[in-house]
Design brief:
Layout (H helix, E strand, L loop, with lengths): L1 H32 L12 H11 L6 E2 L7 E8 L15 E7 L5 E7 L3 H8 L4 E8 L2 E7 L6 E7 L2 E7 L3 H8 L2 E2 L2
Antiparallel strand pairs: 1-9, 2-3, 3-4, 4-8, 5-6, 6-7, 7-8
Length: 184
């Protein structure tokens, strides 16, 4: 009889110990996976940065015009040659970037640089690999896809300026975004 009680006691102790370990893990997991729908995306003001970029840039700065409803600008930056870049080092080139969340809340951006294109393209496209070409307003743009297949980019290197449209969307959406780009 004593042996049976001891076995039940050991099993009960095991379940209590397991509960003590698993409950905090499950609670932490629930906290970390809660959607943060209560925190809406805050749009950024593109115009002041765009005005500065167009004033200082030696190349035509492109920005999308007349995007469909639901596109929200969330990032914009202009760094002139020699000015501190993200790493606080002087920028080796003029760099423009404006990014939006599309209606599905996927980030899509246009980036431009007049510096060496190889490293710029590799950085922006997440080491993108060539796939094919897309036609944007009658011009061929190189398609790149990141090694994990998530990010796609369209690249146009023309007259000393590299323009990249990039996002975690299909090429059709990138082409549609690129056709809205204007320097005016």
């Amino acid at each position: 009889m004593a042996r049976g009680n001891r076995n039940r006691s050991n099993a009960a102790d095991m379940f209590r110990s397991l509960a003590v370990i698993l409950l905090p893990i499950l609670l932490l997991g629930a906290i970390l996976t809660v959607r943060l729908d209560d925190y809406p995306v805050e749009p950024v003001a593109v115009e002041p940065v765009l005005a500065q970029a167009r004033e200082q840039s030696p190349y035509p700065v492109l920005v999308p015009q007349q995007l469909p409803q639901g596109w929200v600008p969330t990032r914009v930056s202009w760094v002139a040659t020699g000015q501190p870049a993200l790493n606080d080092e002087p920028s080796p080139a003029n760099r423009w970037m404006v990014g939006y969340l599309d209606p599905t809340e996927t980030f899509v951006a246009v980036e431009q640089s007049d510096g060496p294109s190889d490293q710029f393209v590799a950085d922006v496209s997440r080491e993108g690999l060539p796939e094919a070409t897309s036609t944007v307003s009658g011009e061929p743009w190189q398609q790149l896809v990141s090694p994990d297949g998530r990010t796609r980019s369209l690249v146009d290197a023309d007259e000393g300026v590299t323009t990249i449209v990039t996002g975690d969307v299909g090429y059709d959406e990138l082409v549609a975004f690129a056709t809205t780009l204007s320097a005016g």
